[in-house]
Design goal:
Helices cover 62% and strands 0% of the residues. It is an all-alpha fold. It has a single domain, classed as Glycerol uptake facilitator protein. The radius of gyration is 17 Å and the shape is globular. The two termini are 19 Å apart.
């Protein structure tokens, strides 16, 4: 196993998260914007798009352990996978990477945004929102979905910092980065209908900030009153997942 400096870890995590959001927001733009070739709401395509976006981003971010998600980072630190002193470094890389990835997705589809006839409804391309607004139950939904992701990651241990997919694994972890992509697809297809399944504070917060700054004429609100749900819910879900993992003797 190779070891890397904090600077290398930051760059790895930043670029991986940026690619995750570029592809994830890209599939949402492709299915939502009227003049994009993929136009037509297709939840399964969105679920697959986000799943394979995780695969691409994680494959790039192997040097940092491919967290791409503050909830994963929190769970890994809780189970002694990384020192707590590195948590702010990971959080900063993930949130800033998500912010930049969202901006790249906008540039990719700028002309489609310019010609979209419902600009007030473009926020959902960038950030999540509930199908039935109720902050408490929306929080519970994010918590449950994130628990599934985190507990699978901890039990399967698909990633090892500094090895990529090159190290020998058995069982679930033999799938490597593809394994977590399958889980993200399953979460989207089965659990995503309640809140749009952020399951990642950076995935929601970075693009929400970017959307508030983008020059989309006639755009809608960034809905900051809801923003705490997809930020705090996944973190609590991650802590519960890590707690259960430790309780059953996973570490």
């Amino acid at each position: 196993m190779q070891t890397f400096s904090n600077g290398q870890i930051f760059v790895s995590e930043f670029i991986g998260t940026a690619v995750l959001l570029l592809l994830g927001i890209g599939v949402c733009a492709n299915t939502t914007l009227k003049k994009a070739f993929g136009n037509g709401k297709d939840w399964l395509l969105i679920s697959f798009g986000w799943g394979f976006a995780v695969f691409a981003g994680a494959s790039i971010a192997w040097k940092s352990g491919a967290h791409l998600n503050p909830a994963v980072t929190l769970a890994v630190a809780t189970t002694d996978g990384i020192p707590w002193s590195q948590v702010p470094l990971y959080f900063a890389a993930e949130i800033s990477g998500a912010f930049v990835g969202a901006g790249l997705a906008y540039l990719m589809y700028k002309k489609q945004f310019d010609t979209h006839d419902e600009p007030e409804n473009t926020g959902g391309i960038f950030f999540t929102g509930p199908s039935v607004p109720n902050h408490f139950w929306n929080f519970v939904s994010e918590l449950i979905a994130t628990f599934v992701l985190i507990y699978w990651v901890l039990q399967s241990s698909p990633f090892e910092m500094g090895t990529g997919d090159s190290s020998v694994h058995f069982g679930n972890s033999a799938l490597g980065y593809a394994g977590v992509a399958f889980v993200v697809i399953a979460i989207g297809a089965s659990l995503g209908g309640a809140t749009g399944y952020a399951v990642n504070p950076a995935r929601d917060f970075g693009p929400r900030v970017m959307y508030s700054l983008l020059p989309i004429k006639g755009k809608g609100s960034s809905n900051w009153g809801y923003a705490w749900v997809p930020f705090i819910g996944p973190l609590v879900g991650a802590l519960i997942g890590a707690g259960v993992f430790l309780l059953v003797g996973g570490a």
